[in-house]
Amino acid sequence: MVEISEPSPLPQVGRVTLAEILVSLGCGWRDFRAAPAFGLFFGGVYALVGLVLVLLGAGNWTWTLVLSLGFPLVAPFAAVGLYEVSRRLEDGESLTWSAVLGVVARERNRQIPWAGAIIVIYFLFWSFLAHMLFALFMGPSALMNVSTSWDSFLTPTGLTMIGVELVVGGVAAFVLFALTVVSLPLLLEKEIDFISAMLLSFRCTLANLPVMLVWAAIIALLLFVGMLPWFLGLFVVLPVLGHATWHLYRRALYDPLP
């Protein structure tokens, strides 16, 4: 007989300050230092996949499709592992591989896979939109090998295309960030459907827009720095950000009074 958990009440959206962003980052670094093996393991999932894709020549259509369908599904589960480590450190529970990985495995029967599916669909939509914008602006030059000829990008049309891609891509990235910034840790802790969790995450982002924009910029900057030395920096950057996200979630949402 399958046990059905009672749905959790939706948390209330709180106010987040810039100081709490810094505190969350400090807590993320503290959690990483407290359990470095878990951080290196889950951060290594991202770093090694990125490095392997580069070494195997990612960039053609086949590898793009593999990345689109596979990596966004794996990423939420790796993030859940980091959240679970922070949750256990916060509650003083034991940290064992069987306990943490057991929680990650059990998530496959909950709402996280649906959130991962949304991320995949969103990723594929953005990939299609980016290719469409490229074709609309560049016309026949879209058929050329851009890896050996960059001259067309330096034309007025090419520069306009780059500008539009950056703006549209930035908006698309922020929407995905808003939908997931607190929804994934919420889905780990509460019995809430993924649609409600994502909508609540979006509301939380809009209610704290300036601070969340700073948080998104910090994430982008740290990820960029982490990717520079052959993705090796991600072994540290990603777990620290994952732990920090848990602590930011704790500050952004709170349970309603009974």
Average pLDDT number: 81
Biggest sheet descriptor: 2 strands, antiparallel
Number of helices: 10
Strand order within the widest beta sheet: 1-2
Residue fraction in strands = under 5%
Order of helices and strands: EHHHHHHHHHHE
Shape: globular
Q: What is the radius of gyration computed over CA atoms, rounded to a whole number of angstroms?
A: 20 Å
How helix-rich are the residues, as a percent range? over 70%
Number of strands: 2
What structural category do the secondary elements indicate?
mainly alpha
Give the terminus-to-terminus CA distance: 31 Å
Low-confidence stretches: 68-72
Q: How would you sum up this structure in a few lines?
A:
The chain is mainly alpha-helical and 258 residues long.
Structure description:
The chain has 258 residues and is mainly α. The chain has ten helices and two strands; from the N terminus they run E-H-H-H-H-H-H-H-H-H-H-E. It has helices spanning 18-34, 36-55, 61-91, 97-106, 112-138, 156-180, 183-189, 194-207, 209-227, 234-252; strands at residues 12-13, 253-254. Strands 1-2 form a two-stranded antiparallel sheet. Helix 5 runs antiparallel to helix 6 (156-180) and helix 6 crosses helix 8 (194-207). The protein starts with 11 loop residues before the first strand and ends with a strand. Residues 68-72 have low confidence and may be disordered.
